[in-house]
Write a structure and sequence with these properties.
The chain has ten helices and 15 strands. By secondary structure, the protein is an alpha/beta fold. The longest helix has 17 residues. About 3% of the residues have low confidence. Bound molecules: threonylcarbamoyladenylate and magnesium ion.
């Protein structure tokens, strides 16, 4: 069984020792839980791919204690980087930069770029600082499934022996925003909306960024596959009125909404906060909970179209895309 461990100094020291010995450890971040390995240890990184069931050519994010370590990984660092790290690090922003020659292919999936992030969660900070080198970590879920936002989610997904540091519920609840700055002179490109809002990034940069999520020419990124972050049950996204009609046709369906249920409604209706931050924080746990009831169908109320709902909308669209 996975071992959920409190993040005491001893717990963190045990996790650091495991990472340094080439083992995999799950740890909390403010976005979602990660499945970590020492980033320069090929055997350890391979274990992460094996555990996740992830194709080898899909690269991992390297987690750093702070921006001082960027030069160890990046080949060229454009001027925007210091603005962005001053504003968002530590925090939910991942930067894709050109790698330097020393960065091995097993981290980058053979691409000429490397993804870097410094997480804000104090337990992640303690762990990564303890290891010294970077910690490569994807979200701690099986490939294509919902990311974990609690230690128990990780433990239920990896029944084998795995140490899971328990840092409580992830505060952001959705993965980091991924911004590509690897093309010299080009406008930064958004590869995945996430915890750092696009408008805030644009304010810091003083320019608009390009949103190429999933578009042609996008670097390989599982998070950009259509069917991703998926519950096991078939998931359909619909505005409230349409959802209520669909519900009449499939009375066993479970509902995920930010609107309250109609008066007297008795079926499964999970109501999430009606603000994007609160909704994002609870979304993945809600999808897992609904899935446990093994409903024939999950009906999700479509969220508003505003920019502040971008990351939530992206995840809902992927969760409801069905098999790719
Ligand atoms: O919030 C997060 O980013 C979490 C926590 C654990 O830090 N991590 C996470 O990792 O979501 P993962 O592997 O589940 O998603 C990272 C995404 C993947 O879609 C990956 O392909 C993409 O980042 N990625 C990694 N390196 C890249 C690169 N060099 N160029 C483009 N995309 C890259
Ligand atoms: Mg993931």
């Amino acid at each position: 069984m996975s071992r959920i461990v409190k993040p005491t100094p001893e717990g963190i020291a045990t996790a650091v020792a495991l990472l340094e010995a080439g083992e995999v450890v799950a740890f909390p971040t403010e976005t979602v839980y990660g499945l970590g390995a020492s980033a320069l240890d090929e055997g350890a990184v391979r274990k992460v791919y094996d555990l996740k069931g992830r194709p080898l050519d899909h690269p991992l994010i390297v987690h750093l204690p702070n921006a001082d370590h960027i030069g160890e990984w990046a080949g060229s660092v454009p001027p925007e980087v210091s603005l962005l790290t001053a504003a968002f690090w530590p925090g939910p922003l991942t930067l894709v930069l050109r790698r330097n020659e020393s960065v091995p292919d097993f981290i980058t999936g053979g691409q000429e770029t490397v993804a870097l992030r410094s997480p804000a969660h104090p337990v992640a900070q303690a762990l990564i600082s303890g290891v010294g080198a970077g910690v490569a970590a994807p979200s701690a879920n099986k490939f294509g499934r919902v990311s974990p936002t609690a230690a128990a989610h990780v433990a239920s997904e990896f029944p084998g022996e795995l140490l899971v540091l328990d840092g409580g519920r992830s505060d952001v609840g959705l993965e980091s925003t991924i911004l590509d700055l690897s093309v010299p002179g080009a406008v930064p490109r958004l590869l995945r909306p996430g915890g750092a809002p696009v408008e805030a990034i644009e304010r810091v940069l003083g320019t608009r960024i390009v949103q190429v999520v999933g578009g042609p020419g996008t670097p390989r990124a599982p998070g950009s596959l259509r069917s991703h972050y998926a519950a096991r049950a078939r998931t359909v996204l619909a505005p409230l009125a349409e959802l209520l009609t669909l519900l009449e046709e499939s009375p066993g369906a479970a509902v995920l909404a930010y609107s309250p249920p109609p008066t007297g409604y008795v079926g499964e209706w999970l109501e999430l906060p009606a603000d994007p931050d609160g909704y994002g924080r609870e979304l993945y746990a809600a999808l897992r909970l609904l899935d446990e009831g093994e409903p024939p169908l999950i009906l999700v109320e479509a969220v508003p179209t505003g920019a502040e709902w971008l990351a939530v909308r992206d995840r809902l669209e992927r969760a409801s895309a069905g098999p790719a």
